[in-house]
Amino acid sequence: MLRFLRSLYFGRRLFYALFGISILFLISFWIEFLYSITWILTAILGVLLFSDIVALFKGFPISAERYLPEKFSNSDENGVKIKIENKYGFKVYSEVIDEIPVQFQKRDFLRSIELPAHHTVNFEYQLKPLKRGEYIFGNLNIYISSFLKLAKRRFVFNKDQMVKVYPSFIQMKRLDFLALDQKISLHGIKRIRRIGHTMEFEQIKEYVRGDDVRTINWKATAKQGNLMVNQFQDERSQPVYSIIDCGRMMKMPFEGLSLLDYAINSSLAFSNVALKKKDKVGLLSFSNKIDNLQKASSKLSQLNRIMQALYNVNTGFYDSDFSMLYSRVKKHLSHRSLLMIYTNFEHMSGLQRQLPFLKALAKQHLVVVIFFENTEIIKLTNITPANISESAHQTVAEQFSHNKLLMVKELQRHGVQTLLTKPADLSINAINKYLEIKSRGML
Fold first, then answer.
1. Helices (H), 209-283
2. pLDDT digits 0-9 by tens, 392-439
3. For a tag site, which of 10, 40, 61, 282 has the least CB within 10 Å?
4. How does 154-191 read in b/e, with b if 16+ C-beta sit within 10 Å?
5. Rounded to whole angstroms, how far apart are CA atoms 50 and 158?
6. Whole-model pTM?
7. Parallel, antiparallel, or unpaired for β 62-67 and 161-166?
8. CA 403, CA 352: separation in Å to the nearest integer?
9. Where do the TM regions start and end (predicted)?
10. Are 340 and 264 in contact, with CB atoms under 8 Å apart?
């Protein structure tokens, strides 16, 4: 009986009908013949309500299932599929309320669907997580009503399903083609001009117009009687590390996503491209201590290990210790490597404190310091000030923006490669920087 009462709900039509009957009872105080008619209408309503409840509560004629992917991709749209099967012998109307994880702060999910007799309906909705971690889905609630819509029956399915949100593997797959083709023509992707060549020999081929005459192989030319040239390819099996700063500066949010999550998504996409280019990839995260160190490897399983490691990377409110980073890199990375350091500097003084350690790293490795443009400040520089207050804000914003450019010049002056980018363009620009370094043979 208690289960029956918990699953029984009443529709709006019943309350509208009861309100109308109460008005008729009120009017019958002055018009007496309406009193009898109102009782007849009340009896009819009671019969209809009873028959509606009996029809809805025969057996268990509704089945439903929520299908979740194995994992969610952070900062991307992820599909959640719902399947509902109607075993009633008549058409019913359903209201689907899915208890979405608390991280989304979404409490207005409702889908109204008509279910024909003995019919199955599938639909899908999208969720965009902005944090990594475990997301718990609650009940899948389905409220069924007949064409009378006087009563509803509640069905509950799929209690407490859990899905993990990983760094953006959807973005990684979307940028996968960059490992195969450097002739990029899509909007938003910077073209890279190949300069020179690397020194890893691939094959000898016949000379065609446009080949570099410096690569002519004179011995092969003498044997074949035709001009022959050496063909080179990008050097492979070079160690490449993504070094992620997990300090307090990476806590800053842009468009709902922290700088740390932008860096993590970029590291995964970048590592995938580097593996496709046959390089060894590794990972290091740090703040006031070394949180994670994955030695560089070119094995296919390395990408999965990096994804698992990135899943657990979190930021705190500590100042990052670049001196400790330098000592750990010097101890564990004996071979010259490409170090893609994801960090952020908002003031020149912050850069000056860490510059000696970056210069020391650059003596042994090829260092690329990646930091971020403040897009909110850039918006202020583009407005037309309407008063003195806005003009003052714009002046300060222009100074902050100019300081970022000075930081780039300062790092380049000391032989450190730099990449200043908007957070949203980070993955594309980081991969392009890597391809540029490969094409120039700088590592």
1. 218-224, 259-276
2. 888 888 888 889 999 999 999 998 999 999 999 999 999 999 988 887
3. 40
4. ebebbeebebebbbbbbbbeebeebbeeeebeeeeeee
5. 30
6. 0.80
7. unpaired
8. 12
9. 14-31, 37-57
10. no
- Read off the tokens for 346: 């908002």
Q: How many residues does the chain have?
A: 443
Q: Write the single-letter amino acid at 273.
A: V
Closest to 441 measured CA to CA, from 261, 240, 235, 254: 235
Q: In sequence order, what are the residues at sequence separation of 6 or more whose Cβ sits closer than 8 angstroms to the Cβ of residue 379?
A: none
Q: What is the pLDDT of residues 364-391, one digit of tens each?
A: 999 999 999 988 888 888 888 888 888 8
Domains and CATH numbers, the chain: 2-56 (no CATH), 62-166 (2.60.40.10), 169-194+235-440 (3.40.50.410), 200-233 (no CATH)
Q: Which residue has the tokens 């997301």?
A: 135
Extract the tokens encoding 382.
């583009």
- Closest by alpha carbon to 240, among 265, 289, 273? 273
Question: Residue 311 in 3-state DSSP?
Answer: helix
